[in-house]
Design brief:
The protein is an alpha/beta fold. It folds into two domains: about 45 residues, no CATH class; about 180 residues, Rossmann fold (3-Layer(aba) Sandwich). Helices cover about 45% and strands about 15% of the residues. The chain is built from twelve helices and eight strands. The strands form two sheets. A six-stranded parallel β-sheet has the order 5-4-3-6-7-8, sandwiched between helices. It has a two-stranded parallel ribbon with strand order 1-2. It is globular and about 60 Å long. The relative contact order is 0.13. It comes from bioreactor metagenome. GO terms for molecular function: D-inositol-3-phosphate glycosyltransferase activity.
């Protein structure tokens, strides 16, 4: 929040940080969703032995490859289009004005269609830019119920995962990337850090630097032109998720950690206070 300029550092943030560290120290174990978060708490004095990493994952009973949704294609006039979708919050973190620049640069590619699906503080501004600059290959679609998200992913040819170029975002792993991979849809991601490493390892995404419309455009065109690469990405995504980020795999990691927790210290004052005894 501070790096984004939403909140200023001061007395309140100092108190919140002290409370945060207090609870971290009292925890028997800590489970972080990224390696970067783990490194952060260790650097702030938390014992690394009790800090574990289990990332977010995906429910493969909901997100998996299916045919394009013919109803969506008809409703949004997407027949014979190469569909590029962004699904999620339209906020300052995503810097979607960069994606509008990409769409504008591809305005003359008549078979390319961008979909912006979701809501957020920047949405009206983005719509105004689109109208003002006559960007005709973008459709803005309202936020969708959870059960429709896999339909939109699977109706897309490419999905976008943009993040603003901020040091903090190198520690973020957008959970949507696991959903998209599980659906077998190639990704163009403009981000850095741990998420970029995972996507590169998956061999189901092209990762470019954030806030660079030219690099994003070239990645989109590469996937559109190179059918062999495109089809390999479609195949790789679901396999990678199944092997590394399925809910079943993550649950097994949680159980392993829980089973390895050492015996409760019954002499701890906190335990005595709550009536925990042998």
């Amino acid at each position: 929040m501070i790096e984004l300029g939403v909140m200023k550092e001061g007395f309140i943030t100092q108190i919140l940080e002290k409370m945060e560290l207090f609870f971290y120290r009292k925890c028997k174990i800590l489970i972080m969703v990224t390696r970067s978060f783990k490194d952060n708490v260790i650097n702030r004095g938390i014992d690394g032995e009790k800090v574990h990493v289990i990332t977010n994952g995906v429910n493969q009973e909901l997100f998996y490859p299916i045919e394009k949704n013919s109803s969506l294609i008809e409703k949004y006039n997407l027949k014979d289009k190469f569909i590029i979708s962004y699904v999620g919050a339209h906020g300052i973190s995503q810097n979607l004005s960069t994606i509008l620049k990409v769409a504008k640069a591809l305005n003359n590619e008549k078979d390319i269609q961008f979909l912006f699906i979701g809501e957020g503080a920047e949405k009206n501004k983005l719509k105004e830019i689109s109208q003002k600059e006559d960007i005709t290959n973008v459709k803005f679609i309202d936020s969708q119920p959870k059960e429709m998200i896999p339909e939109f992913y699977n109706t897309s040819d490419v999905c976008l995962i943009p993040l603003k170029k901020i040091e903090l975002f190198k520690t973020f792993i957008p959970s949507k990337m696991f959903e998209i991979m599980a659906c077998g849809i190639p990704i163009v991601a403009s981000l850095e850090g741990e998420a970029a490493d995972i996507l590169n390892d998956s061999k189901s995404a092209l990762v470019v630097e954030p806030d660079n419309p030219e690099k994003i455009k070239q990645a989109i065109l590469k996937l559109k032109a190179d059918k062999a690469l495109y089809n390999q990405f479609k195949k790789n995504g679901p396999i990678f998720v199944e092997e590394n980020y399925s809910r079943k795999k993550l649950a097994e990691k949680y159980l392993e950690i829980m089973n390895n927790i050492s015996e409760v210290n019954y002499n701890d004052p906190i335990n005595r206070e709550h009536g925990i005894s042998r």
